[in-house]
Amino acid sequence: MSLGTQGGTDRQRSTQGGAMDAGLAPGTGTPSPRWEHLDRGTERVVRGSGRTVEEALEQAAVALCALVADPSTVEVREEVTVECDARDFDHLLANWLRAVIHNMAARRLRFRCFAVRLDGWRLFASAFGEHLDPARHQGAVDPRGFSLAGPSVRRDADGRWTAECEVDV
């Protein structure tokens, strides 16, 4: 599927994605929160979208985790608390994704889903997942070498939020 960026000039290819729910959000007529991976030339982009900025940040983290292991193979056995802050949403996205990477690498965790709450520019989150199980998390990539560039959080014309970031794997 080809998508245009905010300006409509950059062509992207969606390589995979998912949604916590399917279809429309109950009672709203708007699409459910979702995540996807995009290829922009040699760049790999993780993108999350949702009705709120919190949902977009949650889904961007799921997209990041999906580069490491298929989230559907991760069981919810542990809850990890994550906090970070920044001066704006773009930097908050980068700090949030770095915190997720740190927990995956240092604690050998894999995450399935997240719950994010914002208080101004401060993010409070719960990450749900389990320790790496090589038998179930086959093909898992080591997140220690990930680097991030170009974080972007924006509200689209339709009122939905999008959070995306380039990831060098």
UniProtKB/TrEMBL annotation:
InterPro entries: Archease_dom (IPR023572), Archease_dom_sf (IPR036820). Residues 1-40 are annotated as: Disordered. Pfam families: Archease. Residues 35-169 form the Archease domain. Signal peptide: none annotated. One of its GO terms (biological process) is tRNA processing. This is Archease. It comes from the Bacteria. Keywords: Calcium, Metal-binding, tRNA processing. Belongs to the archease family. GO terms for molecular function: metal ion binding. The keyword Ribonucleoprotein does not apply.
